[in-house]
Write a structure and sequence with these properties.
With 140 residues, the protein is mostly beta strands. It has a domain at 35-126: Immunoglobulin-like, CATH 2.60.40.1120. Helix content is 9%, strand content 36%. The protein contains one helix and nine strands; from the N terminus they run H-E-E-E-E-E-E-E-E-E.
Amino acid sequence: MCNEPDRANVYYPHRMILSASLLAALGVSLQLQVGILQPDRSIYGTVTATEPAGSVGVPISSAAIELTAVGGGIRRLETDSVGAYQVDKLDAGIYTLRVGREGFRELTLQVRVPEQGAVHLDVTLERVPPILAQPITQGG
C-alpha cells in the first residue's frame, strides 16, 4: 500500500479561490454565509436606495419590513440608521418579505429559510419620482 492520500478526498483551497475569482470576473456576486456570525433560521441584510438616475447604495433608515409566514404569522420591524435589518428565531420554510418606505416603490419577495444557516438578503428600493402638480387653467 502506498501512503499517498486519496486524491478524491483532498481539499484544494487554491481551486476554491480560483473558482471564486472566476465568478467575480464574470460579474457574479459571491456571498459566503457564516453561521457563527448570524443565528440559524434568520434573515438579515441592508435596504438601500436607487435613484431614477441609476445611483445605488444610499441606506434607507426606518424602512418597514414585514415578514409573513405561510401559516399566517406576521413579524414587523424597521431598518436601523444604516439601513440594516435582522429577523431571528424563524421556523424553516417559505416567507413573504415586504419592504417599503414612503417615497419608494414597495418590494415583495418570496424567501426560503433553511433549517440551518441564515439568509443574507440585501434589498434595493427604487425612489418614486415626485408627482408634479398640473396647473389649473381656467376655460376661456
